[in-house]
Amino acid sequence: MHTGEQYHTFILSSQRDRVVRDRFQKMALDFLPDGADVLDFGAGTGIDAKAFSARGHRTFVYEPSEAMHEYLAEYCRDEIARKSIVTIPSHLACRVQAVTANFAVLNHFESHTSLFEELSRVVPQGGFVLASMLNPYYLGDARYGWWRANLINLMRRGHYAIASESRIHRFTPRVVARAAAPYFRLERLTPRGFGLATQLYMFLLFRRT
Asked: Which keywords accompany this UniProt record (predicted)?
């Protein structure tokens, strides 16, 4: 189990993760209207929240891990004091233009149906949810036995879970899109085509209908 500080140091020192985070932040900021509020769902140690706040977006942060939340409170203490970052006890305790969920937060859910119904009460019509999720088609994982063993599950059901303590789930985009309906529609998937075989993470942008 990582402490918040260990996780923070590790993810900032990983070149691959920095590239993914930069792409995710750019996509979120490109779609956010000027001055719009955002919810960082599963905010970790507050790296994304700090970036959104710096661009003028009041950012609500929900992080259920005590270790992560404690480090977030230290890392973002100035923004919290200015109330440009606001910690909340539940993801339902705010109303925002957008929700972001970076680095596989949604892969910890077995199903997203209830979550999207809840988020429909947080995000108004025209707002969005942007999530980065582990890509089930990533060929870099083909060296692992669990990936090969679950190919049939992926083709048949579009979903499987890895037998581990954290029970990480893999989903095809269509399965997540089906769970999001009728409250959200999948507006953009990145990457597409051959890129799905070469990228560990896929970005899914859901628009509130």
From this structure: Methyltransferase, Transferase
Cβ count within 10 A of residue 165: 6
Cβ(107)–Cβ(169) under 8 Å?
Answer: yes
Please give the backbone phi and psi of residue 192, each rounded to the nearest 5 degrees, phi first: -130, 170
* Range 4-208: architecture per CATH: 3-Layer(aba) Sandwich (3.40)
* Helix 47-54, helix 66-75: angle, nearest 10: 30
The residues, any chain, with a CB within 8 Å of residue 203's CB and separated by 6 or more, are: 23, 24, 27, 130, 131, 132, 188, 189, 190
pLDDT digits (tens, 9 = 90+) for 144-190: 999 999 999 999 999 999 877 667 999 999 999 999 999 999 999 99
Is-above-0.85 flag for pTM?
yes
